[in-house]
Amino acid sequence: MSGPTGAQFEITYGRARAVVTEVGAGLRTYEVAGVDYVQSYPDDTYPPMGAGAVLVPWPNRVRGGQWPFEGGTQQLELTEPERHNASHGLVRKHSWQVINHTGSLISLGIDVPAQHGWPVPLRVTISYALDADGLTVTHGVANVGDRPVPFGVGMHPYPRAGNSALDDCTLHLAATTSLPLSPETMTPDGPQTPLAGTDLDFTKPKALRGVSLDHAFGGCEPGADGLVRHRLTGPDGGVEVWADPDFRWVQVYTPNDFLGRGRAVAIEPMTCPPDALNSGIDLITLAPGEAWSARWGLLPK
């Protein structure tokens, strides 16, 4: 292993290319004809601001790192100590094992053992595949323990509308609600609220110039084809973040600078909202021996 993300695995299809990391199984690069459609980062650095990270067995944050299980309280490591949270799951800093690697596909897996704060072991897999429909990412989770367990899944890509500057782009979300978050903890401090008529309504394309976001959006409705679709569009092209209906949530974050390139946007598909291990909202529960899978993807437009 060399560098903080370990080995780098490349897949290609025609003029498309993606690079996936050994540590965290994250998406480091996705480009078509030399144009980036995610914010990439050097292979000798740790992923900045969670770029491309896989978030399992919960996305986003767990308030205080505590959550209830079988009448007791589990205490996770506080990986975001400044906000007193457990953040973004358990697999980002561990090496994954390659299951299959062909020219246009790579599948990796990792075992999540029972541990302090997480009582039931899981088998987690992810596949990245390139084809004529862009990049498809398939997540799998299996309960290999002897008790039912709830969980959630998310991903942390920073899509790019080709070479367009973010302030020249519009954002279109399939979301119909937002979940208010405390600015101190970035965990929920109120119920879901409808977006219609508010400044956070992106159900029609809306310009991002001057807009600062770090918000959890819910009620992501699939279209007639059964897929949830979010779109980032600019003068130099666009990119669609599509997902299976399991991904009813999306976190949208606009940092002011990404590696000196100016403003960027994370569009993070999630199966559940922040602090879902406490609220129970849209958690998936697997019985012993049960497995789950769902997909999302990136499609240059």
Task: Give a verbal description of the structure.
The chain is an all-beta fold. It has a single domain, classed as Beta-galactosidase, Chain A, domain 5 (Distorted Sandwich), CATH 2.70.98. It is 1% helix and 43% strand. It contains one helix and 26 strands. The chain has one helix spanning 276-279; strands spanning 8-13, 16-21, 27-32, 35-36, 53-55, 61-63, 66-69, 72-75, 85-87, 97-101, 105-112, 122-131, 134-143, 149-151, 154-156, 170-172, 177-179, 193-194, 206-207, 214-218, 228-234, 237-243, 249-253, 266-270, 284-286, 291-300. Strands 10-11-12-13-26-22-21-16-19 form a nine-stranded antiparallel β-sheet, with no helix packed on it. A five-stranded antiparallel β-sheet has the order 18-17-20-23-24, with no helix packed on it. Strand 12 and strand 13 (134-143) form a beta hairpin. The mean pLDDT is 97.
